[in-house]
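P.,

For your records, the input lines for the assembly:
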Amino acid sequence: MSLLRVEGLEKKFGGLSAVDDLSFEIQAGAVHSIIGPNGAGKTTLLNLLTGVYRPSGGRIVFQEQDLTGRTPHEYAAHGIARTFQNLQVFFNMSALENVMVGRYLHERCGLASALLRFPRLRRAEQACREEAAELMRYVGLQDYLSAAADAMPYGALKRLEIARALATKPKLVLLDEPAAGLNPTEALALDDLIGRLTERGVTVVLVEHNMRLVMGVSDHILVLDYGRKLAEGSAQSIRNDPKVIEAYLGSGVASAGIAGGDRASADTARSAVAESRGNAFANAGSARAGAH
Amino acid sequence: MPSRLAATRTGGLAAFAAVIALLPLALNNSYFYDIAVLVGLNAIVCVGLNLLIGYAGQISLGHAGFFGLGAYGSAILSSRYGWPPLAAMFTTTAAVAALAFLVGRPILRLRGHYLAMATLGLGVIIFMVISTEDKITGGPDGLSVAPFRIGNLVLQDERVWYWVVGALLLVAVWLAQNLIESPAGRALRALHSSEIGAEVVGIDAARHKVMVFVISAVFASIAGSLAAHYSGFITPGKAAFLHSIELVTMVVFGGMASTFGAVVGAAVLTTLPQLLTVFKDYEMIVFGAVMMGTMIFLPRGVVPSLALLLAPRRHDAGGGEPGV
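Structure tokens returned:
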């Protein structure tokens, strides 16, 4: 049984289809990556899958429940959490409180209890605080336990969003370009974190331009181009798919792209060659987007 | 750390209680008591309004309307229909809460300037109804209000009112601080910073905005009811736009997202015009200059700016002051 099923999903902005007749399934307990050139509709897709955008057509079925047209907080309540490419951290709070906000669904209390601060709430708050601190350590933020969010560096904020997403106890977590803006060391440490997420029983959907990261951690890759599914399969099959290489590099250099792909697959996924190729993919993507 | 946070909160509340208890030593005539009662009533409104503006980040330019409804509801029910003032006050408060709930749902979808316009409109409508329905409200001529009585106990003396209002203000501050530190309060602060970030962790932003709007309206309504009984005479001016602006100014001046800031803002802006009477014709110019100077030199408002100056390394307090 699939965890998430998308059927004929469509999102139009004016006359433009950002996501067009897209269907795919996500199986529980794996890392699924969504890649594609800039403007392929990846972030739009994440926004659809979390209720931020309302689809123009199609269905989103999560655990056999139709969630099409629901609001973001309803998606969260069903167990879908996410991070944002452009951070949505609560900068008016401490880092710990940011993660505590993530516990909201499991902490809710009546208004009377909140206003009068019943002893039960006081105990629950203490437990919430401890769990939030535990999650911060889990994502590697042990140095920021008493920091204010607006005093944290960019890389730490990215992890803070992951901790906040995990605090909702999600079944599925959608990571929107977690490696963007990170230095190579920080990006490498993400591989480890994403791997550990699946051990927790959380299914991961990763939208990412860093090909080294994608190829290294993904069990399954979905390639989008112009809002449509271009290809789908294992990292190995995607890497060698001529359609994918053409979409990224253009048809004129397709043969060179394949050669590069073979070389990269011969190396380990973490090698410097794969890293530079990842950059080439991303650069080619932006160059193409610029040409259109 | 949590114990320290709790200690800060309890300590702040205890210090505030001590200020209320000791202030009468400095109040040597009924005029000073009168000012103190007015400060307390404004502070109750501002503590509620600060939950809406300072913590949840939603503006209201119509809260004098709720204050006015509280005042007129209590006045009409108790003076015209002979209800016991306490019953009149509770009934009025419930009605204002219901109104805030009904109006809040549609208008809190709006953001920023549009929400400001909508709340302004609400305040203006309430003001117009109070001024024109003169058969019930007395219209622009005002309405005299019977003194507050509970059974045989009649509240008339400024000194008695001081203790009643002081105790209620203390309760208001306590409730506000409890709310802010609760999961619901964190949700409010979260949606202030990023509504979408709050939604995706499961917070129903619309519901929370309406909740805090209703709470702030209830605070304003109760203060309005008390103010009506205290002064014994009310005019539609209490519900007017200018009064709404005064209330928002108090919150911003004292410091947004600071409960004691709201109290300080109410205290300063209620007493300042009295103090400035020594400047005679230049009173309003000096008042404006004080306002501008405060906002230039203490941009976060009086209390948060001073707290930051005095304790630059305090970084784990609830208000979210920046860290080291």
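Two observations worth noting. The domain at 2-250 of chain B is CATH 1.10.3470 (ABC transporter involved in vitamin B12 uptake, BtuC). The beta strands of chain B are 143-144, 148-150, 153-155, 233-234.

Regards
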